Amino acid sequence: MKKWVYRFDEVKAVDKKCGGDWDRVKGLLGGKGAGLLDMTRAGVPVPPFFTVTTEACNEYQKLGKFPQGMWQEELGALKRIEKASGKKFGDPVNPLLVSCRSGAKFSMPGMMDTVLNIGLTDTTVAGIIRSTGNPRFVYDSYRRLIEMFGTVVLGIPDEEFEGPLKAYKAKKGFALDVDLQAEDWMEIVRIYREAFRKQAGREFPQDPFKQLELATEAVFKSWNGKRAVDYRNHEGISHELGTAVNIVSMVFGNRDNDSGTGVAFTRNPATGANKMMGDYLLNAQGEDVVAGIRNPDKIENLKNHLPAAYAQFMAITARLERHYRDVQDVEFTIESGKLWMLQTRTAKRTAQAAVKIAVDMVHDGLITTDEAVDRVTPDQVDTLLHPQFDVTALKAAEHSDTYFAKGVNASPGAAVGQVYFDANKAESMAKSEKQDVIMVRPFTKPDDVHGMIAAKGVLTSEGGATSHAAVVARQFGIPCIVGAATIQIDLERRVMSAGGKSIHEGDLISLDGSTGNVFAGKIPMIEPSLKEQTDLITLLKWADEISARPGSRKAPKGWPTRGLQVWANADYPKDARRAREYGAHGIGLCRTEHMFFEPDRLPVVQEMILAESSAARSRALDVLLPFQRKDFDGLFEAMDGYPVIIRLIDPPLHEFMPSEEALLEEVLTMRLRGEGTGLAEKEHLLQTVRGMHESNPMMGLRGVRLSIAMPEIVEMQVRAIFEAAADCTLRGIVAKPEVMIPLTGTVKELEWIQPRLIRIAKAVTAEKGVNFHYKFGTMIEIPRAAVTAAEIAKLAEFFSFGTNDLTQMTYGYSRDDAERNFLLTYIQEGILEKNPFQTIDRDGVGRLMQMAILDGRRTRPELEVGICGEHGGDPDSIEWCHLIGNDYVSCSPFRVPIARLAAAQVTLKYGESKKKTAKSITSRSSKALSKPRRSRVRSSKTSGRK
Ligand code: ADP
Ligand code: MG
Ligand code: MG
C-alpha cells in the first residue's frame, strides 16, 4: 500500500522511495517539507514534524476525500511527534500544538494557506496557562488560531476579525498589538468566537483532531484556490504537482520578550551583496513580520537582544548556504532564547543579484563556472543592459495622472525625452540641440531610420510588435512602444492626445518599453552599461569558454563540434564597435542600403536610379563608391580578425525615391501657382516613380533579382568591399569579407551573378597586390532556396538564414499585416503556440533550415551556416540553431550578451558534460551541513515532562 505520510525521522524511507534524487524528494514532500527534513537530518534545530505527501493531495483532488489510510498515518505520525516533544495533542495538562502548512515543489510565496496553533481549545488553553503561567501569550495564540482557522478553513473574510480587533483597540486606546494584556486577548477570543459562530453557523471546534483534519483538507483545497492557480499559470508551474502538508510542532515567538520571529536572506537579494539581510520582531508570531503589523528590526540588531541565538543563527545559515550552494531565504523563531529553524529555500533575486551571486559563489569555490552560467537567465541579462526607470518612481507614475496611454511593448527599456513628430526634426534636435528626443509617428518607414537612431525612444500609434518601428528599434536597442491605438497624432498642429490629455511637440514624455506604458513628463532613470558590469563580463567570459569547448556537439566531418558562436548584425562602424565590445565574434549581417539613405548620399542614389543609360548610372555609382568604401573600411577595422558578412543591396529601389503622393502634391501645387521652373523635371520624376510601382514590392524587383536587372550597383558594392579590405590588409588589419547575395531562389541566379562579382574581387586584389580570406555566399530566405540547398551550396560558400523573410514566405504571412490583423487571435486561440516572428517555428521553418543544412553540407561539408534574422537573439531559437548544426547566430549588438549566455546554456544542456543531477539527500556528502552528532530534538525549554 502507498505511504502517504513521512516523519522527520524517516529520511531513509524517503531516500529509498525517491531513489536518492533530490528533485523527486522535493516533488514528493514539497520544497518546505524537503528542506525541513534535510535540516533535521543535519542536526539543525527544527521542531518535530511530519509531511503528508503531494501524492496524497493529488489523490484527494481525484477522490474528493482523503485517500484510504492517510488519516490513520497522520495520527500515527502525530504519536511520534508527541514522543519527541514530550507533549500530547489535546492533553489538558501538557498539550502539543502544531501548525498545518502548505508547501509545493516550487515555492509559491503567499499563494496557499497555513494555520498556526492547532490544538488550542478551552481545555488545552487552561492547561498551558497553568504550565507557563503566561495567560497573555496563550490567549494571543488562541485568538490567532480562531482567526486563521476561520479565514483559511471556512473562508470567513479577514475583516470579520480585523474589524472588531481594530474597534477594540480604538476603544481602549491601544496603538499596537503588544499593548494588549491577557484580559484584552481573552476578550478578543470571546469576540472572535462570536464572529466565528455568526459567519460559519457553528461553534469553533473544540476537538483538536477535528481542527487538524479540517486544516489538512483546507491546505489540499488551497492548491486549487484562484490565487494559486493564477500564480501557477503566470509562472508556468504545472497544475498536476499538488501541495504537501507539513504538520509542525509549534514553537512560540510570542512567548515572552526573549522570544521572537524573523525572516532573512543569506545574501542581499536585491544587490547580491554578500551580507545577511533580514528582519525580526520580538514577542511575535509567524507572519507578523511580513504582515507589517509592527515595524520590524534589522536582523543585525538581534545581536544586542539575544546574542547567543543570533550567533547560532548566523552559523546555521552560513552552513545552509554552503550546503545548498545557493542563497537561502529562511524563517526562524526564537522561543525563550532557543532558536528554531522553520524554513529554508533558494531565494528569489533580481537580475543584478543573480549575476553577482553566481560570480561570487564561483570565487568562493561553492559552485563551478558551468553552474554559475546556468543560474542566470537570458532575460536577466537583458534587463541589465537596458536603461531602467527607478522602480518606486515608476510604480507611483502608474497610478498618477501623468499616465498617458498604453501600446505594444515592442522593445524593452526605459526612455525619457522631448517629443518630435518627424525624423528630421528628431534628428536635428538631438544633434544640434543635444536634446534627448522621443520620435513619435503614426508608423515608421525606412527613411525614418535616422530619426529613430537619434532618438532615445520611439512611439507609434499604429503597427504591431514586428512592424518596421519595432524591428528597427530592437535592432538598435532603442526602447519602443508601437500600436498605442488610443493616441491621436495631429501632425499639422504638432500635438498628440489620448484620454483627454494633450502632449505638444517639445514636451517631455517617458516610455516604459518593457510594459508599453507611456507617461507625460519625466520619470527618473538609472542607466546601466556593460563596461561597468564587471560581474556580468566575467560570467559571459565563462559562457564563451563553455561554448568554445570542442566536442560539445557530435556531428559528421566538417560540421561544427563546439557550441554556437555569437555574431552581430551591424550596419555602421560604431555598431560594429559596440558589437565587439559586447562580445560578438563576427558581423553576420551588414545591410548596405542604410548607407544609401544618408542625407548626403540619397540624391546621388536617386540620380543613379533615374539614369537613362548604363554610362550615366556608372557615373553616379562612381560618386557613391568612395562612400561605401569608407563604410566598409570602418567595419573591417572595427572587426579586425573577425569575419564581416556584407549583404548586397536588397530592398526595392522605390524605397529610395520620394513617395508618389508627395510628388503629386508638389506637382499640383506648382501647377496651381503657375511655377514653371522645375515643373517638367518634377512631372518626369512623378512619371518614373509611378512606373516603378509594384503591387507586391516585397516579392518584386529586389534582392538578387535587382542585381541581375542592374548589375552595376552590386559591382560597385563588391569593388568597394574589396578595395576597403585590401586597404585594411595593407594597414595590417585582418579583414575577412564575406559577400552575401540576398533573396536567392534558384542556383541559376547565383550562376549568373556570382562569377561577375568574383571577377571584380580578383581584379581588385590583383590591382592592390594583396591577398586575404574571403567568401561568397547567400541568404536562405525563400523556401525554394532551402529545398534546393544541395544545388545552391555548389556556389555558395556560406548560408545565412534570413529567418524573418523565411518565416513570412513559409507561412505565407505578410508580417506587418499578420501582427496587426490576426496573429494575436491565432495565439489566443491556440492555432499558433508562439509568434513565429519571435521564436523559430521548429516544425515548419525550422525543418526547412535543418534540411537545407543537411543538403548543403552534403555538397560542401565545410559550408558555414548562420542565422541573421531577429530570431538570432531569441534563446529558444538559439537552441534550435545549436541542434541543427549552425556555426553561429547573429543578432542585434544589444542582444549579443543574451545570445552568448543562451548559447552556453544550450551547450551545457546537450553537451557531453551534462549537468550532474542533484544527488540524494543521504548520499550528498553534505560536509557543510551534517554533523556527526545528532542534537536531540526538543520542542522547548518547558517541555520537560514526558
Ligand atoms: P508561507 O509559505 O506563507 O511562509 P509558512 O507555512 O511558512 O507559510 O508559515 C507562515 C508563518 O508561520 C511563517 O512565519 C512560519 O515561520 C510560521 N510558522 C509555521 N509553522 C510554525 C511553527 N510550527 N511554529 C512557529 N511558527 C511557525
Ligand atoms: Mg514560509
Ligand atoms: Mg530578407
Average pLDDT: 91
Q: Helicity level, as a percent range?
A: 40-55%
Judged by helices, strands and strand pairing, the structural class is alpha/beta
Number of strands: 33
Which descriptors apply to this entry?
single chain, alpha/beta, 8-stranded mixed beta sheet, 38 helices, binds adenosine-5'-diphosphate, binds magnesium ion
Briefly say what this structure is.
With 946 residues, the protein is α/β, with parallel strands linked by helices.
Architecture overview:
This protein has 946 residues and is an alpha/beta fold. The protein has 38 helices and 33 strands. The two termini are 33 Å apart. Helix content is 47%, strand content 16%. The protein has an eight-stranded mixed sheet with strand order 14-24-23-16-17-18-19-15. An eight-stranded parallel sheet has the order 32-31-30-29-28-27-26-33. The chain has a five-stranded antiparallel sheet with strand order 1-2-7-5-6. Strand 20 and strand 21 form a beta hairpin. The site of one magnesium ion has 4 residues, from loops.
Topology, please?
Blueprint: E1 5-7, H1 11-17, H2 22-41, E2 49-52, H3 54-63, H4 70-85, E3 88-89, E4 95-96, E5 98-104, E6 114-118, H5 122-132, H6 135-154, H7 159-172, H8 182-200, H9 208-222, H10 226-235, E7 243-249, E8 260-265, E9 277-282, H11 288-291, E10 297-298, H12 302-305, H13 307-324, E11 328-335, E12 338-346, H14 351-363, H15 369-375, H16 378-385, E13 388-389, H17 391-398, E14 403-406, E15 408-411, E16 414-420, H18 423-431, E17 437-441, H19 449-454, E18 457-460, H20 468-476, E19 480-482, E20 488-490, E21 495-498, E22 501-504, E23 508-512, E24 517-520, E25 525-526, H21 534-547, E26 565-569, H22 573-581, E27 587-591, H23 593-597, H24 602-610, H25 614-638, E28 643-647, H26 660-673, H27 679-691, H28 703-709, H29 711-730, E29 736-741, H30 747-768, E30 775-780, H31 783-787, H32 789-792, E31 798-801, H33 803-811, H34 815-821, H35 823-828, H36 842-859, E32 864-867, H37 875-884, E33 888-891, H38 896-910
Parallel strand pairs: 3-4, 16-17, 17-18, 18-19, 26-27, 26-33, 27-28, 28-29, 29-30, 30-31, 31-32
Antiparallel strand pairs: 1-2, 2-7, 5-6, 5-7, 8-9, 8-11, 9-10, 11-12, 13-25, 14-24, 15-19, 16-23, 20-21, 21-22, 23-24
Helix pairs in contact: 1-2, 5-6, 6-8, 6-9, 7-8, 14-15, 14-16, 14-21, 15-21, 16-38, 21-38, 22-25, 24-25, 25-29, 26-27, 28-29, 28-30, 29-30, 37-38
The structure holds adenosine-5'-diphosphate and magnesium ion (2 copies).
